[in-house]
Structures are given as structure tokens and as C-alpha cells.
Specification:
The protein has seven helices and no strands. α1 crosses α3 and α2 crosses α3. The protein folds into two domains: about 60 residues, 434 Repressor (Amino-terminal Domain), CATH 1.10.260; about 45 residues. The longest helix has 19 residues. It is mainly α.
């Protein structure tokens, strides 16, 4: 089993959920959850978002890039992307690739530095 699979299984068991119940709650097939938990499949971006949102953890946590369960950078990016969608700047969040996410983060960092008076 991989770390991502272990973490999803741990979160699921903490809530007393079967794979079938989690699948129903997240709109994902049970077989995909089983394959991700066993390390046979990665699940993809939409899967990660659904699981992370359901459990209130970060995708970084699911992927094993941090031990902090709290939403972090992708939460900020997701909120900003939703803002861009709500304001008609972009049409579909699923068309935002990793490079675009990094550009968004860079722009936010630059603006925060301006507000704080950093150079």
C-alpha cells in the first residue's frame, strides 16, 4: 500500500466509513477507492479534490507531501480559482493545470508582499 492509500484508509476508518459509503458520499466508484487504497491506481485530480474536501484535509497531506492535515496552498489556489470562475475570468476549473496554479500562487505571493511592504 502507498502512503496516499494508507492515509485515505485511515481517514475513512476514523469516520467509521466503508469504501462503499465513502464512494457514495463523494460520488466516486467504490472500486476506484479500493484501487487507490491498495496503490494500484492514483485516482487523479478530481478524485483527490473530492476526497480532500470530504475529509477537510489538504491534497498535499493525501499525497504524503506534508503531515499537516490542514488545507494549505491548494486551498488558497482553489478559492482563488473559484473567485476567477465566479467573476467570469476562467470558465472551467478542470482546465487549470499545474503551471497555471503556480502562476496564481506567484501572483498572490507578489501581491501579499506589496501589502506587507516587502520588496
Amino acid at each position: 500500500m502507498n502512503l496516499k492509500g494508507e492515509r485515505i484508509k485511515e481517514l475513512r476508518k476514523e469516520r467509521g466509513l466503508s469504501q462503499a459509503k465513502l464512494a457514495k458520499e463523494c460520488g466516486i466508484s467504490r472500486s476506484v477507492i479500493a484501487m487507490v487504497e491498495s496503490g494500484k491506481q492514483n485516482g487523479g485530480r478530481d478524485f483527490n479534490k473530492a476526497i480532500a474536501n470530504y475529509f477537510g484535509v489538504s491534497i498535499d497531506y493525501l499525497e504524503g507531501m506534508t503531515d499537516d492535515r490542514n488545507n494549505s496552498k491548494e486551498s488558497l489556489v482553489n478559492e482563488f480559482v473559484q473567485f476567477l470562475i465566479d467573476n467570469g475570468i476562467i470558465e472551467d476549473e478542470n482546465n487549470v493545470d499545474e503551471e497555471t496554479e503556480q502562476i496564481i500562487l506567484s501572483l498572490i505571493r507578489r501581491e501579499v508582499k506589496k501589502i506587507k511592504g516587502d520588496k
